[in-house]
Amino acid sequence: MTSAKLRYTVKKRGNLFWQPTKEMRELGFLPKPLGPDGPAAQAEALKLYAAWQKAQGERGQVTHYPAGTFGAYWDRLRGSKLKPSTWWSKKSVRTREDYERGWRYIDAWRPADDKGQPIGPTLSRTVITRITTELCEQFNADLVATISPRERWRAIKALKILLADAVVRLRLGYASPADKLANPQPAGRSAIWLGAEIEDLAAVAAIAGFEGMGLAIETLWQTMFSPVDVRTLRPSQLKRDCEGFYVHRRRTKTQAEAFAAISDELGQALAAYIARQDRAEADDTPIFRTRADRSDRGGRPPQAVAYKTKDLFAKDFRFVRGILLPDDERQLLDIRRSANVEADAAGADRKTMGELLANGLADSRFLEETYTPPTVAKAREVAQKRALGRVKLAGEVMRLRNG
Q1: Closest CA to 212 of 269, 174, 280
Q2: Helices then strands, each counted (H, E), the chain
Q3: Residue at 219 is within a domain
Q4: How many CB atoms lie within 10 A of CB 203?
Q5: Of 138, 125, 142, 150, which is closest to residue 177 (Cα–Cα)?
Q6: For the segment 260-287, what is each residue's pLDDT rounded down to a tens digit?
Q7: The pTM is what?
């Protein structure tokens, strides 16, 4: 075996490198050092070339589902990753996520007999003209028994839209089999936290060693951001002007620009927390970190790492909540709603609230840290109103609890 027979490789100073073309890189085949030119490196090059040939053969395939099935229709409706369909391209990121989450259940579900034994293909691999009303009803009944009302609603919504679309596009000549399937949207969450409870949660977190979680809870409360926007908050997004601290970032899901005012106390606490992390000057990774891992690390000091997933973020919050309120089931996402309720109780303008949470301002660069956009001024006005609303809300809750 010699390197001269290999495709898409180059030899430099006795080492072999995999060097894909621009077209190959667009499909995920990236340059890679293979090591000293020899049998091992050449075998790896042949393996990469075989993977490329396989990818070329599959490139023209829009779907891996059998022809005529619901899954094949779904894939063709969306198009490929390299060339998404017009229908799919027009969907917002949030809408695409809803479809994909709903499709997971369609793709996994199989009908079962009276004894619970699976029969027939999954719903996604069922020929689309063989999907009946009875099959859709059984799918819905199984979801009611196994998943949350909101997840069931999302899955049935996707099913109804996709089957109705297929009836029209494929000219099937009959009504969608899911057309009569009832799918009421479940009521949204209504649980709220009081300002005093937020203070207690943050304090308990700090005492238990979850400094990052404690500061994250306070940041959630003051910014009114979603949990993901706080979890991924970076040092460069913490700003300060002559009026005080504020946060400026883009929403994770919508990329809309958002501003939020925070207290000087919290701003200073965040700045000190960041300073203690011994970051490199260019390190702009997320601010909030887990409690230091105190398990055996071979003599190395405990390490705290950034919250990389929402599951870990929520797990630490539940641990802290369990210390303070063992039987409570309120969640991180309820903090944002609570802050809005507090502002609404003081008469904050709804349009202003919408702008602060996800406004549509054009991109702009801050030439000076002392420049303050109008939305930050609005954020500070809302913060003042929330202080009034906090008193009203706490009084009303106490009246209802004692009544």
Answers
A1: 269
A2: 15, 6
A3: yes
A4: 15
A5: 138
A6: 889 999 999 999 999 999 888 778 999 9
A7: 0.58
